[in-house]
Amino acid sequence: MKLLITGAKGQLGLQIRSIIERGKSEIGEIDEIYKNAEIIYVSHDKLDITVLKDVLEYIEKYRPDIIINCAAYTNVDRCESDIDTAFKVNAIGPRNLAIAAQKVGAKLLHVSTDYVFSGTGSVPFREYDIPQPISVYGKTKLLGEQYVREFCDKYFIVRTAWLYGKYGKNFVYTILNTAKEKGYLEVVNDQRGNPTNAEDLAYHILKLVLTDEYGIYHCTGKGECSWYDFACKIVEYAGINCTVVPITSDKINRAAKRPFYSSLDNMMLRCTIGDRMRNWEDALKVFIDDVKSEKQE
């Protein structure tokens, strides 16, 4: 088996690599096929997925059985002003990979986001709910989904949310660092979603791509909270003496609108390969404990 991972130096790409190299994740073993698989880790410096000619040549050269696309332009606010780049990376890139995957008969797993939904309502969105993004980021990610569905027969679209992990920048690291430095935080309390540990997401991706259970998936931590609740738990689990104050979204000047409610329901996972995503608080506790133990070593 030959597996190609784009966006390999990003938060999720590195998490997938870590699990493959360990042969297991915190929530379970991965298939033994990965031990002898040829894994090609590629990032932007080796392949610009926004250039169709380059993608076609690269995929034709390596002819992978599976492509996992972790590449994305995720700076939500910057997407509002840098629209062309967001469109190229989040929409044209997946389109190019889909066209190339179809040509060589490869499966394509594309990672998407809760931001494809409007954020209105109070019930977790399921895979059959109609997307209605309110930001450039969400709109370009939705178009990327549509291109994947249009140009590739064997696809998995996996929407996740509020992702954090060991590698790169994320909300958990930001809160930990700011809480220690300032001892005071103001965090929005009127946006709700599902914190997701990248370890759990990576495990399910590696399980999913070995199947023929094609379609759209939601894959997030179980349970929901506000960003304020999330921050409070981070500070509590880390044992940091910090005051966390709830505020409303209108107190923060941001370029992009955020959905007020973007919780996802992992219905497709439950109905196919099984949903082993941890409760968001349990997964966060393990993550914070690991961060603390690494700093003590």
TrEMBL record:
GO molecular function (one)? dTDP-4-dehydrorhamnose reductase activity
Q: What does this protein do?
A: Catalyzes the reduction of dTDP-6-deoxy-L-lyxo-4-hexulose to yield dTDP-L-rhamnose.
Identify its protein family.
Belongs to the dTDP-4-dehydrorhamnose reductase family.
Q: What class of enzyme is it?
A: oxidoreductase
Name the chain's protein.
dTDP-4-dehydrorhamnose reductase
| One BP annotation, GO | dTDP-rhamnose biosynthetic process
A Pfam family cross-referenced in the UniProt record is: RmlD_sub_bind
Annotated organism of origin = Thermoanaerobacter pseudethanolicus (strain ATCC 33223 / 39E)
Give the record's GO CC terms: cytosol
Which pathway does the record list? Carbohydrate biosynthesis; dTDP-L-rhamnose biosynthesis
PANTHER family per record: DTDP-4-DEHYDRORHAMNOSE REDUCTASE, METHIONINE ADENOSYLTRANSFERASE 2 SUBUNIT BETA
Q: Name the SUPFAM superfamilies for this protein.
A: NAD(P)-binding Rossmann-fold domains
